[in-house]
Amino acid sequence: QIDLGERTEVTAVATQGGYGSSDWVTSYLLMFSDSGRNWKQYRQEESIWAFSGNTNADSVVYYRLQHSIKARFLRFVPLDWNPNGRIGMRIEVYGCTYRSEVVGFDGKSCLIYTFNQKLMSALKDVISLKFKTMQSDGILLHREGQNGDYITLELIKGKLSLLINLGDAKTHSSNAQINITLGSLLDDQHWHSVLIEHFNNQVNFTVDKHTHHFHAKGEFNYLDLDYELSFGGIPVPGKSGTLSRKNFHGCFENIYCNGVNIIDLAKRHKSQIYFGNMSFSCLEPPVVPVTFLSSSSYLALPGTSGQEEVSISFQFRTWNKEGLLLSTELHQASGGLLLYLSDGKVKMSAGLNNGQWHSVSFSAKRNRISVIVDNDVTLSAQASIPLQIYAGDTFYFGGCPNGGNNTECNSSFVGFQGCMQLISIGNKAVDIISVQQNVFGNFSDLQIDLCGLIDRCLPNYCEHGGECSQSWNSFYCSCTNTGYKGATCHYSVYEQSCEAYKHRGNTSGFYNIDSDGSGPLRPFLVYCNMTDTTWTIIQHNNTNLTRVKTANRENPHTVFFKYSASLDQLQATINHAEHCEQELAYHCKKSRLLDKQDGMPLSWWIGRTNETQTYWGGSLPAVQKCACGLEGSCIDSQHYCNCDADRDEWTNDTGFLSHKEHLPVTEIVITDTDRPNSEAAYKLGPLLCRGDRAFWNSASFNTETSYLHFPTFHGELSADVSFFFKTTASSGVFLENLGIQDFIRIELYSPSEVVFSFDVGNGPSEVIVQSLSSLNDNQWHYVKAERNIKEASLQVDQLPQKSQAAPPNGHIRLQLNSQLFVGGTASRQKGFLGCIRSLHLNGIALDLEERAKITPGVEPGCPGHCSSYGNLCHNGGKCKEKYSGFSCDCTFSAYAGPFCKKEISASFGTGTSVTYNFQEYYPLAKNSSSHASSFYADMTLNREAITFTFRTTRTPSLLLYVSSFYKEYLSVILTKNGSLQIRYKLDSHQDPDVFNINFKSLADGQLQHVKINREEEILFVEVIQLNKKSGLSSKSTRSKTVKANSQGFIGCLSSVQFNHIAPLKAALHHSSSAPIIVKGRFTESSCGTLTGADSTSSETTHSFADHSGPIDEGEPLANAIRSDSAIIGGVIAVVIFIVLCITAIAIRIYKKKSIYSKNEAKGSENEDGAESALKSELSMQNTANENQKEYFF
To answer: Which of 1175, 1174, 954 is nearest to 1053 (CA)?
Structure first.
């Protein structure tokens, strides 16, 4: 311990080992104090406590302190020393004397300073001061105006609040009040500095090293404030009735107001200063705090053995939710006594783990016990117990000694971590300094005479509004409702664009997008319209056609448009997009856009740049024309806009504005509608943007030595990197950025390992993700790495995320200074071969293509997206490559849409039918409803694959009929009782085979998905009921039924596919070119989707969590699987032997699948047969036909 004689500003320290010995200290703590009591630890960075010391006896290790220490006493506490020697230290301290003016307040006085009015500057004000106190509340500074304005700097619960109230409540709304809170644990009896700078309406508020910048709202100047400033309290009680708060009790140092030393003026009794009783010195209160560093810390104090009355009181402060405060064995084996902090409560009081000092006093006399917390009677508890209490020998505070079975101390609880002070036993204060000098008592792992509690939530490292909570050695972020995730709420939960949602396989709907990823902008809701191109649609508050009359230049009609996102969010979205547009329609009758005489615009609009624009929809910037003026098609060729013709009839200038920099339209001004009979109307559509430039932005690295370089990556406290890669190489470095010692690197270490390694000053560490399959399969793989002060994490594709916690109390800043290398490295030779795409650093996309154009060995763009995204093309759609991305070709699919997932369905009325004729390749007909068709080729089918979906309540119905010229046929029928019947006649000499599927009635108005496959003589049938609520009510369908025996199908057919023909799609979308005959009323509808039969929207909107289509066929059908042989009814011919097996019937609540398999041996398909008449097809169900073979399942 060093006494410097007076308060000194220390700027550097140096240490050396003992002279000519093997004694030196390898690490130490530095502490400082004003009075030799109440010490404070010096911290270099946010969380670095220890200095590393010497490695030998003679060399000097010098440390320049990042921020100087102002103190009289210094303490060097050795932590570790040379194992072959002892503690030995030579110390030098560098600094200079520290001049200061101090004033002490007793909590009843205050100091008032009156400004010299001539020197008053209304524009700029600087107030600086230092203070120290043990009270957690008190007024530091106050200034008041005539009409209720005031500025107050107040200590509340150990934090400083700057309260600025402008104007009285009548004229100003509540947003005129500004309340900013900085600092924490400021009641620790150490000096804290405050600086308030105010210039115009910009205010900087600094406490210690934390600064808050803000703009004051409203007219913020000091003109309506009094020329008087009070320190330490509010002078006249009752002058403003709301502010009767607690005065300051403690010390001020060096109060300066615009350069005037106020304490010096007060000492010299200048006329500007009025004050109560105060002293020009700073008294140190004799309080000795104790810090419990770890859960094994304890303090043992002797008790008042055998006395009838037990009374103990102390104060504690902590962040932890639990800990043992006090444990003792009571005398004469009358049991033990425990005070325990659990879930932030001492027995019954709440929220004590908030870092504030809380007092606990416990007393017991004979058989009455009482516990009082914070001197608050409401938080007290009394109890009577049926036995006498006598004090024990020893009281254990904060924990129990290790080792031995200590009967006196109950160690079944977690030890206390935090500070205690003002401990008294038997109404007598305990002298902790004597305990420190081993006069009495016992302790372990304590810091005496300092409170080492620090606020880990200051500064708050939780980003995006995450809530910070803490314990003794760590802090935690709660990210609920922020839209972000991770240990510090850094990474966005949502995708950056609609394009990214589309490539997760999502359909159109409302989605939250976060256009700058982990950047400062919040997520917002847009509508994503997933067609072949992906459109992002952002609405505003005024989409109707609005008519305008009686507007002129003196009194223009101005309309403002407010969007569902802020301008910053819109700008980020527009910058990301490949193209944006907005439709602006201007209808006019005797209302011009441009005045020909003076060339002044009569109406204009304003965009994002806040500049007046006079070009209109469909035109280009810088030409004052409309679309018709560019095309030369205006109704009056002398003018460049239709409206400028000034005719007495309605005309319009309409088109899309597509100059990205000017969008969106925020304001329209119309002035020319005040002449008789003149009127205008405008309509502004939503902002439409398509594509995402960053999502497909990629580069191909063709040689191992090639790389791209970008500016240094700045992610000091939190950094995230995400990209896609595709390669056939077994290893390579994706990106690297170096510092003097720090670095960050992501590499493919082996074909199945991605490694994220970095160093922030605590030594290199790495996070490794192992993939079961190899990653060098030339498909796109997604990598996301994040590093924040809590942890580092790495995710590859959908594999589980690996993370690694950061060491406590280590370095936290990642300091890089080299360029950022992508696809290669500066330090090692092994570059990356392959493609990198969509590279984002902290949410900002790097333009790989631009940089690749000018870099040898690197090509912009990267072909081959189908190998990775081809599985997004469903239902037989084919993936087609594009330069940026891919598209699905649905030509041979019964579905449509960007991923061939949109059902094509039609509702059939009475007597409606669709015929598909194939005359050429193999003329085969397939009829969705009641009619037949023939084909005349010598082509034979020995297999079919048929799928379709239907919904009906009508029986009997014919769903499908296929016939050949040779009188062979196949039909699918719903019988009278609603069961499905499939008839195959493959040989004209035999009777048809009939299969009945009647596990339930299928005519129940639900969607039924039917799949029929025949491979020669094996038949496979699958029926899935898609059981969601359908919009088709059975009553309305029945009312449409004409006759019970009419042979049509009334209802919905959807997604019909026969081998590679999609007849329903051909009839609806290509009816002119395809060989289709349509009879009756036939309309496209959305009845085939699960949302129901309403045809308002053919696209279903899914929630964000639902990334699947409407049917998830991958679920296991595990409920009721049973296998048994079937009953075969009817007459079996001798020649043909038929075995039928039901392999499995699986019944489930939501989806019902029934699978049937049948083997049939049949004669040659090529023999002549008789074409069966269609009309008999339905009536056959009702007659008992002896000759046909029927199978019931």
So the answer is: 954
The secondary structure of 482-540, three-state, reads: CCEECCCCCEECCCCCHHHHHCCCCCCEEEEECCCCCCCCCCEEEEEEECCCEEEEECE
Q: 1021: closest CA among 1035, 1036, 1011, 1029?
A: 1011
What's the rounded Cα separation, in Å, for the pair 363 and 850? 77
Q: Is 867 in a helix, a strand, or coil?
A: helix
Extract the tokens encoding 662: 């000017």
**Amino acid residing at 433:** I
For β-strands 1189-1192 and 993-997, DSSP reports them as parallel
Burial class of residue 555 in the structure, from the number of CB atoms within 10 Å of its CB (0-12 exposed, 13-18 middle, 19+ buried): exposed
Hey, which of 37-41, 120-124, 1158-1162 has the most confident mean pLDDT?
Answer: 37-41
Burial class of residue 344 in the structure, from the number of CB atoms within 10 Å of its CB (0-12 exposed, 13-18 middle, 19+ buried)? middle
Q: Is the pTM of this model over 0.85?
A: no
The region of weakest confidence among 262-271, 672-681, 936-945, 1160-1169 is: 1160-1169
d(CA 1050, CA 1053): 9
Q: What confidence tens digit (pLDDT) does each residue in 920-963 have?
A: 433 333 433 333 333 333 445 677 888 888 888 877 788 888 77
The angle subtended at Cα 20 by Cα 18 and Cα 25, nearest 5°, is 30
Across residues 656-664, what is the average pLDDT? 89
Q: How many CB atoms lie within 10 A of CB 140?
A: 24
> Which of helix, strand or coil describes residue 751?
coil
Element (H, E) at 391: none
- The C-alpha atoms of residue 1176 and residue 973 are separated, in whole angstroms, by 12
CA–CA separation, 284 and 191 (whole Å) = 12
- 984: which 2 tokens? 């195959």
Q: What span, in angstroms and rounded, lies between the C-alpha atoms of 734 and 1112? A: 37
pLDDT at residue 916 greater than cutoff 90: no
Q: What are phi and psi of 39, to 5 degrees?
A: -85, 160
Q: How much is the pLDDT for 114?
A: 78
Q: In 3D, which of 351, 486, 344, 480 has the Cα closest to residue 791?
A: 486
Tell me the three state secondary structure of residue 8: strand
Closest by Cα among 30, 90, 8 to 54: 90
Percent of the chain with pLDDT over 70: 77
Residue 390, amino acid = Y
As a whole number, the mean pLDDT across the chain is 76
Please give the Cα distance from 135 to 155 (Å, whole number).
9
Count the residues in the chain.
1193
CA neighbor of 183 nearest in space, from 472, 462, 469, 458: 458
Largest interatomic CA distance in the chain? 131
1181 touches 975 (CB < 8 A): yes
Q: How many CB atoms lie within 10 A of CB 670?
A: 25
Cα–Cα distance, 355 to 751 (Å, whole number):
50
Among the residues of 864-975, which ranges form H helices? 866-869
Burial of 648 (0-12, 13-18, 19+ CB in 10 A): exposed
* 670, 548 contact by CB (below 8 A): yes
Q: How far apart, in whole angstroms, are the C-alpha atoms of residue 1183 and residue 1191?
A: 16
More confident residue, 1192 or 1035: 1192
- Classify 831 in phi/psi space as left (phi over 0), alpha (psi -120 to 50) or beta: beta
Q: Name the strand (E) or helix (H) holding 960.
A: strand 957-963
